[in-house]
Design brief:
By secondary structure, this protein is mostly helical. It contains 24 helices and four strands. Helix 4 packs parallel to helix 13 and helix 5 runs antiparallel to helix 19. The two termini are about 20 Å apart.
Length: about 600
């Protein structure tokens, strides 16, 4: 660690909020809540649900190489940047960027992402609620039988497949497992004609589950941090118990080794595909909750002198470690399914959002008391979804509560209006064509390109426009010492270079969206790009607006647009013997 240059009295920032508002700022009750809230933000569905299916879809072990690289050069530095920025400014994800007003578009873009994320991601929670309901029975689970109304003549149970010589049976004779038919024909009730026939709102079990999901989120959020802080003790820790059970059971199944080998053995040829790098980078952002407004918001609820630097490394290790362990659990089960079905691991199921809903229940259904273990697993998914959902939604709500007294004073009503509105829009995702709309949001609205674009500009904002050394001095005022040069190098060089590389690679290798052989029509891809651009253009759009409303020459307007509107401590360095005023826009780099 770099040692502090001097000892001074603790510095507290002042910003545009009036003193009464600042005194009323909600905070976590203690350091445990601070840590667990951040743990809930970074350990969620992105680790247990999204990471395994993205890894399976993009080459198994080959995907882990860019994932680890991006975790080191983007994930850890940007997590630290956002949490420390929120902790210092103690304000929402948009106004926090008043530290560099010309870059305020980064915060606006992040709020758009949080809105899109909250709108479509809760569908996963609704799926989990549907499964959880069906575990509350004493009879056989519906995804272990072939005599349900949604089953077809191609259905063959898992136990029948294990007893038979089924090599080629699932390919040539088009046989399917009941878990696959439960997912496609009961949960999704998927349209065969894609977006051309979205269908009617007749999937009432999913409509009810969507309503229950939003009701749970409402009651988690309506009381603010005092209530949320208590929930996270359970929602953050319980999933690790279930994950441990899944890991042990999965690794002891016959054929598990072949799945683990597929997971760990990289196919280097996959690295020539741009989408592998894009999805690896986006998965890091998903897992670390970067650019979703929640890290700045949660940081703003922390004590001013909380050690956000040390916490960054603990949470980063927990985040990537959880994803890695979840991958072991899923691929062990995939290896077992491959042996039972007589196919290669890569051909067991079609990769996609349903992978976790196809693999985990299979493994748990082979255990004694399968209803109990399946109930525990889907309860875990629900809790992870709650963590992910209220983290993103809290980042969105905080913007309005900081801006408008009515929203802050009538939080229960305001949260109810937001949740109710999003529920109505979210009903699109439970129609027969809902899964196709889900993929548009997953690929474009909250896709890797938008996330990387915002990561690029926020690293440039702190590393170059404000100056990473000046920012280090702010961090020192909070934690008492200067961070290591690793963050400085990432802010200025490594993170911008990595994101530019992937963005350029992607645009040269771009292909329209295709899912499970279904090619999305032109209008659907265009709609996706509109959603993407709504966040993408916030950065240049706001910068142009700041320059336009300024006065004086172009240089003077830029100078003023870079001046901090939040008081910052005077910066001094023995190396250059320069003292910068609190609003000096010139970065010291």
């Amino acid at each position: 660690m770099m040692k502090s240059c001097d000892e001074e009295k603790p510095f507290q920032p002042h910003h545009s909020l009036n003193e009464k508002r600042k005194d009323e700022r909600e905070t976590w009750q203690n350091e445990r809540e601070t840590f667990l809230s951040a743990l809930g933000a970074v350990v969620g569905l992105g680790n247990i649900w999204r990471f395994p299916y993205i890894t399976y879809q993009y080459g198994g072990g080959a995907f882990l190489i860019p994932y680890v690289l991006f975790a080191l050069c983007c994930g850890i530095p940007m997590f630290f940047l956002e949490t420390s920025l929120g902790q210092y400014t103690r304000i929402n994800a948009i106004d926090a960027w008043n530290i560099i007003p010309i870059m305020k578009g980064v915060g606006i873009g992040a709020v758009f992402l949080a809105m899109y994320f909250s709108l479509y991601y809760i569908t996963v929670m609704a799926w989990a609620l549907n499964y959880f309901y069906h575990t509350l029975r004493t009879t056989d689970l519906p995804w272990t039988r072939c005599d349900n109304w949604f089953n077809t003549n191609s259905c063959i149970t898992y136990h029948q497949a294990m007893e038979m010589n089924v090599t080629g049976l699932f390919g040539k004779e088009n046989k399917t497992l009941p878990i696959v038919e439960f997912w496609n024909n009961f949960v999704l009730r998927k349209s065969d004609s894609g977006l051309e026939s979205i269908g009617e709102m007749d999937n009432w079990p999913m409509v009810i589950c969507m309503f229950v999901a939003w009701a749970i989120i409402y009651f988690c959020l309506w009381r603010g941090t005092k209530w949320t802080g208590k929930i996270i003790y359970f929602t953050s820790l319980f999933p690790y118990l279930i994950l441990l059970v899944l890991l042990v059971k999965g690794c002891t199944l016959p054929g598990a080794l072949s799945g683990i080998q597929f997971y760990l053995k990289p196919n280097i040829t996959q690295l020539a595909r741009a989408e592998v790098w894009v999805h690896a980078a986006s998965q890091v952002c998903y897992s670390y909750a970067i650019c979703f407004a929640c890290l700045i918001t949660y940081g703003s609820y922390s004590d001013f002198n909380s050690n956000c630097y040390k916490r960054t490394f603990y949470l980063s290790a927990a985040c990537s470690g959880t994803s890695f362990i979840a991958g072991f659990s899923v691929f062990a089960v995939l290896g077992n399914m491959a042996q039972v079905m007589g196919v290669d691991v890569k051909d067991v199921v079609k990769s996609g959002p349903g992978l976790a809903f196809l693999t985990y229940p299979n493994a748990l259904s082979l255990m004694p008391a399968p209803q109990f273990w399946n109930a525990c697993f889907f309860l875990m998914l629900i809790l992870l979804a709650v963590d992910s959902q209220f983290c993103a939604l809290e980042g969105l709500l905080c913007v309005f509560c900081d801006k408008f007294d009515w929203a802050r004073k009538n939080r229960e009503l305001f949260v109810g209006v937001i949740c109710g509105t999003m529920f109505l829009f979210g009903l699109l995702f439970v129609t027969p064509g809902g899964i196709y709309i889900f993929e548009i949001f997953n690929t474009y609205a909250v896709g890797g390109i938008t996330l990387l674009w915002l990561v690029l500009w926020q690293s440039i904002a702190i590393g170059w426009v404000y100056g990473s050394r000046r920012y280090y001095y702010i961090v020192e005022k909070m934690i008492g010492y200067l961070p290591s040069p690793y963050m400085d190098v990432c802010f200025r060089f490594v993170t911008p270079a990595a994101t530019i590389f992937v963005l350029v690679f992607y645009f040269f290798d771009y292909e329209p969206l295709t899912v499970d052989g279904y090619e999305y029509p032109l209008w659907a891809n265009m709609f996706g790009w509109v959603l993407c651009m709504s966040s993408f253009l916030c950065v240049p759009g706001w910068a142009i607006f700041e320059m336009y409303r300024g006065k004086g020459s172009l240089a003077e307007r830029y100078h003023n647009a870079c001046k901090s509107r939040i008081s910052v401590p005077e910066f001094s360095t023995k190396k250059t013997m320069i003292v910068l005023s609190s609003s000096h826009p010139t970065p010291l780099i």
